[in-house]
Amino acid sequence: MKFVDRKSELAVMERAFKGAGFQFIPVYGRRRVGKTRLVQEFIRGKEAIYFLADSIAETEQLKSLGRVVGEHFRDTILTDSGFKDWEQVFRYMKEKGRGKLVVIIDEFPYLVYSNKAISSIFQKGIDEQLKHSHIFLVLMGSSIGMMEKEVLLYKAPLYGRRTGSLEVGEMPFDSLYDFFPGKSFDELMAIYAVFGMIPAYLEKVNPELDILENIRLLILEKGTFFSNEVDYVLMEELREPRNYFALLKAISQGKRKVSEVINETGFEKTHVSRYLDILRSLGFVKKEIPVTEKTPEKSKQGLYRIQDKFFSFWFKYIFPNKSRIEIGKSDYVLKLIRESLEQHLSQVYEAACSEICTRLMEEGHMQFTAIGKWWSRNEEIDLVALDDETRTIYFGECKWSKKRVGVNVYDELIRKSYLVDWHNDARINRFILFSRGGFTEGMLERAKKERVFLVQGDQLHS
Questions:
Q1: Which CATH number is correct for 7-167, 1.10.1740.10, 1.10.540.10, 3.40.225.10, 3.40.50.300?
Q2: CA-CA distances (angstroms) from residue 452 to 216, 304, 331, 391, 422?
């Protein structure tokens, strides 16, 4: 499949590449997010060495690296014998790094597994050899926990040596148009709600089939790419995956408060809090706070949701029905999915609307410094965006329905806006309505008079 988007990530890499002297950029992100494909695109037309570490002994890693480097420089002795130790690696690289040379080591955590002191060894190698070269060193890793411990955090051995860093996250919603040209917004939303924006997942989707058939063939069939994907990803990061599975299942079923998760899982509060903190640090779970909270870190209104769209879908529909799938009752599970998929899509549409707002800001239609949800005990607003500089607040409602949105929805949003405590003495209120099915004539007229943003699907109504 063709390379899609990643303009901002490539720009970060290119800016760093133009820097003088030695450069060291850690590139990290969860499995399947497209890190390797990104660096392959980056090194096109550059002198570069790419080495993929593996779960083998350190002596074998050094031999493999020697073969890769030896083949690049047509050094038959190195190709045949490999490197004997890391000191030899760094000396050799310094000698060859008199001109600009990109050196990429993918899955750096595997080197850590083979030698716990590897980060300190790399620190010494950089200090004594590489910093005097023009090497552009890239260390990559899918284990975010390991990359933080060894490279990124303040106490990590390599923390002070990096000249930059790049976290590769999910792709933006708009990238779906490049992945699946000709698909309607509704079809793209279904793909987004099930597979998220992980490139390796999207590449598996058959554009000739509808979403339910893709679910049946890719997720419900045994032995497919997706069969053990969640297990692999979680086991790579977590020591006690079974307990985390229970938490993620509870959240996917709508238990979003800590107290609800405790009641659902039966775990002690201290354990639940620790597990949730770990899941948040790894990017699997997000803690949502009302966007207007002045001290969000102290807020007691936090609600948890699964960040990854595929994980959310999998824990909602697949994990609770694994036994049925194992005994061949996939059709029954597919029926369950079919019956509630629209409801699932309505929840995911809110996340898409937030991304749409980011695009509208890039296009100059609106400006904000924070975006999220707002809720109180009995009231909720789907989307609230704040611009501290101009004291403008945007209130948004997201309707995943084929029914056209009328003035009643707008008036209700206006009513709820008065409940929001944010610069009440002097602020500018703006409103934005998102609708799958469009808007009534009455709403279109009100929007013109009162400068309301109307977004049908993901397109701003002119």
A1: 3.40.50.300
A2: 41, 31, 45, 17, 20
